[in-house]
Amino acid sequence: xxxxxxxxxxxxxxxxxxxxxxxxxxxxxxxxxxxxxxxxxxxxxxxxxxxxxxxxxxxxxxxxxxxxxxxxxxxxxxxxxxxxxxxxxxxxxxxxxxxxxxxxxxxxxxxxxxxxxxxxxxxxxxxxxxxxxxxxxxxxxxxxxxxxxxxxxxxxxxxxxxxxxxxxxxxxxxxxxxxxxxxxxxxxxxxxxxxxxxxxxxxxxxxxxxxxxxxxxxxxxxxxxxxxxxxxxxxxxxxxxxxxxxxxxxxxxxxxxxxxxxxxxxxxxxxxxxxxxxxxxxxxxxxxxxxxxxxxxxxxxxxxxxxxxxxxxxxxxxxxxxxxxxxxxxxxxxxxxxxxxxxxxxxxxxxxxxxxxxxxxxxxxxxxxxxxxxxxxxxxxxxxxxxxxxxxxxxxxxxxxxxxxxxxxxxxxx
Length: 414
Description:
InterPro entries: Ureohydrolase (IPR006035), Ureohydrolase_dom_sf (IPR023696)
Region (Disordered): 1-27
Structural class: alpha/beta
CATH topology of the largest domain: Arginase, Chain A
Distance between the termini: 82 Å
Number of helices: 12
Pfam family, one: Arginase
GO molecular function: agmatinase activity; metal ion binding
Order of helices and strands: HHEHEEHEHEHEHEHEHHEHEH
Helix content: 25-40%
CATH architecture of the largest domain: 3-Layer(aba) Sandwich
Protein name: SpeB, Arginase/agmatinase/formimionoglutamate hydrolase, arginase family protein
Number of domains: 2
Shape: globular
């Protein structure tokens, strides 16, 4: 078929074409998300990006005379360059003084603990791995039309001081850290670490409120038996979490469960406590939208807040090899991100990302997927206007004393 030559100096957008020029199989670009997102970007502010560049020049000195871009400092500060600098999560400010987390909408906490692992250790390096590869990202998402730097505040409070080979002391430290962040009003984002941290993380939030909390848990494993190898391991967090007085078992929703790694002990507890399991085959049959709808309905039934636990091994191990219990047949990455985003859009009181094990990772792709889950959850909450919605439920905030110190650390400054 021959088409008449077009004047390439004018618009080729479908709305500007003559009727005889339009091809029936071409969609109207104005209906595509790509077109809408392109237009939406113009409405996002740039104030904090400008502020960060000025801050970088103040903290890192102005650049050499030969540098044409005068926003480039001598010492790397902030987001750029992605390959340099100190790797906090998403290059966010480091809250060395953890009493300052109250000034941020969300706070990242690393929990480098794998003492609850029953097979392949290495998740103690998960926070390092996720922070490292998170430098690859900018705070802007084209499809969501969200810029986290402009629309929320984020800090990294560093790692919780966990105690190797001591589960209970580490759990106490984790709960104390999470309760401090939650009490401040900042949204806590925990990077594990093995899945045993789920219990102390939920406990840390639950002790700061009289309100009820539901849980949406993405995983291939049920993780709800009472003990494993005679301890509270990474297979047991939801047994103990749902014993807390304000965390009802009926509001625990586990999505993606299945395969050959679900112990019968866990199934018995789930049946006795009447928790909710949506298997991978259920999700495949119903689709992402219906699965998210059902999970939200059950998790939110009669509660005030919902907590998200995302185990990276819920995703098919072909995409995330760096984990302690790899299992084929899990989510595709697009499915996992869509489900997490839809659950987050209704609002969360906290989230954890667990079981990233860098020693088993390939090209940082598992850590990258973990990073993506976190930023998609934050972006979805921002887009839905739900960031900070948990604050009204903090009716029993804790106060943790800090030590006394005057002076400057490792400095000759008087």
